[in-house]
Amino acid sequence: MRPMVKPRREKARSNTRWSSKDLIGLQGVPADEIRALLFASRAYVDVRSDVEDSVLHGTTIANLFFEDSTRTRTSFTTAAHRLRAHVSNLLGAFSSVTKGETLIDTARNVEAMGVRALVIRARQAGAAGLIAANVKCPVINAGDGRHEHPTQGLLDIYTLAEANGRLDDFDMKGLTVAIVGDIVSSRVARSNIAGLTALGARVICVGPAGLAPRSLESLGGRGGAVTVTHELDEVLPKVDAVMMLRVQFERHDGGADAQGKSSPAIASVREYRSLFGMTAERADRLKNGAVVMHPGPINRGIELDPEVADGPRSVILRQVTVGVGVRMAVLETCARALD
Ligand code: NCD
Q1: Cβ < 6 Å from ligand 1: which residues?
Q2: Which of 30, 173, 225, 274 could cysteine-pair with 197, CB 3.0–4.6 Å?
Q3: Atom 8, ligand 1: which residue's CA is nearest?
Q4: What are 209-250's pLDDT values in tens digits?
Q5: Which CATH superfamily is domain 4-149+320-338 in?
Q6: Contacts (Cβ under 8 Å, ≥6 apart) of 119
């Protein structure tokens, strides 16, 4: 039997709790509620054995994944196992959705089997919220179309707070984060922008006009917390972190090709790399202590060069480690909201 540990229950600074049974997105969520999930995560990040007193002990969590995933599904599975829950996996390509069943019917049938929580990844923006409104059990959004990927946003913010010594209060004031690349297609960017700006950080969106349009500035509200630029080189010395994004070819309209790596949104992969790729020379121009992040999957040699991905500024594998703890906290917190 694996050893069990009792997680240190962390005292939050404020009394605000996460009170919803679901986690669908970070947009519009008050800072204190986002902090409540981050404070809860501190008890689980770096826990490598099963925890003793989880409300999910002996229950079943269902992963309903209608889109490909490596990290996110494995991370939720590992998180559930560390909480001593069972996991059942339903993968889109092998489900009755291919026979015309709706996502809501699929989710309600899986819930009727007695699962304690649903983790949903879907191609359609809004799918997780729709399912949450139609089932009684907790629903965690593991990425819905171009909408949100809230656990990725939380794990990114946690990793950034850790790198900047801010785990005490998750106050991100004074920090500036560049999100670079295909922001318009990115649910990761949307969740990060919402969470980071709620906690006081500034975000600079960097990319070609088709992938980083000016309209993204509206995500920062009237305070101007989000700005857009098309010049990566001038941003490098000013930021505390760069979050590199993959060009999400498969999410582009009009002839995009993920395998062939072509899209009407960029002239060529070569040109994209020369203007927006994080090369070793560009990484050298970052200020001391600035970190390089990526949610994965990385397209090495396009948005990020191998020397940087594996270099001293990279916190990419730390993001993956932190992700398991954050997902443990989110599963536990949402399940407790129903108690
Ligand atoms: C991302 C996703 O699927 O939204 N990856 C992830 O979950 N870590 C980013 C991407 O697909 O590029």
Answers
A1: 71-72, 143, 149, 152, 187-188, 246, 248, 295-296
A2: 225
A3: 295
A4: 999 999 999 999 878 899 999 999 999 999 999 999 999 888
A5: Aspartate/ornithine carbamoyltransferase (3.40.50.1370)
A6: 61, 62, 63, 64, 65, 76, 139, 140, 142
